[in-house]
Amino acid sequence: MKVSFHGHSVVQVQTNDKTILIDPFISGNEACDLDANTVKADVILLTHGHNDHVGDTIEIAKRNGSLVVAPNELAVYLGFKGLNTHPMHIGGAHEFDFGKVKYTQAFHGSSFTEEDNTIVYTGMPGGILLTIDGKTIYHVGDTGLFTDLKMIGDMNDIDIAFVPIGDNFTMGPEDALIAADWIKAKVVVPVHYNTFPVIKQDPEVFASKVRTGEGKVMAIGDTIEL
Which positions, given as ranges, span the membrane (predicted)? Predict the structure, then answer.
């Protein structure tokens, strides 16, 4: 299984027979190296409804016939847009043909802003535990620091965690270091930074300070094999 990072919070997981995209914010994301018009996706996993995470989901899913897995209200909203969706919710898990998905809590907001500036409520935000062939990826999603991250780390053997460090909208680097201690992933990758001026951070400094597991900065397009 190959796991690659593509800017902001965009993560791609490639198995033997499936391509999975998490939070495919591609168009309008100068940090992303993917092309929304050509990228393949059998499955799209969404943490929450903000535009910089839903991104190009509708266009990609329609072109590829992708299954979209999302928190319930977001899944219902995208279903109204004609997508094939599977709704889930915090604490729930489901075995798919590509692996097991479990949603964890995240402390953040969740809404989608339409082109006419209408704001659509899209339910609770979440983090995603994705387990495939005995390996677990934790996309923490957009969140502030909360103590149940320790419980999540105690309950799961996490191989790689994608942790936001940008501050302002999510955890900053100091809180993210505490989160990394609690999650206890073997590899900790910073995400959700430098896309906008207000979330500018130095990921190398963060990675060098990770105390539990290996802090690793993934450049755009970098891949890790699990």
Answer: none
Domains of the chain by start residue, with CATH: 2-215 (3.60.15.10)
Structure tokens at 2: 């190959």
- Tell me which amino acid residue 126 is: G
- Taking only the tens place, the pLDDT of each residue in 101-111 is 999 999 999 99
Cβ contact 216:191 at 8 Å: no
Mind listing the pLDDT tens digit for each residue in 121-179? 999 999 999 999 999 999 999 999 999 999 999 999 999 999 999 999 999 999 999 99
Mean pLDDT across the stretch 9-32?
96
Question: pTM of the prediction?
Answer: 0.97
What's the pLDDT at 26? Answer: 98
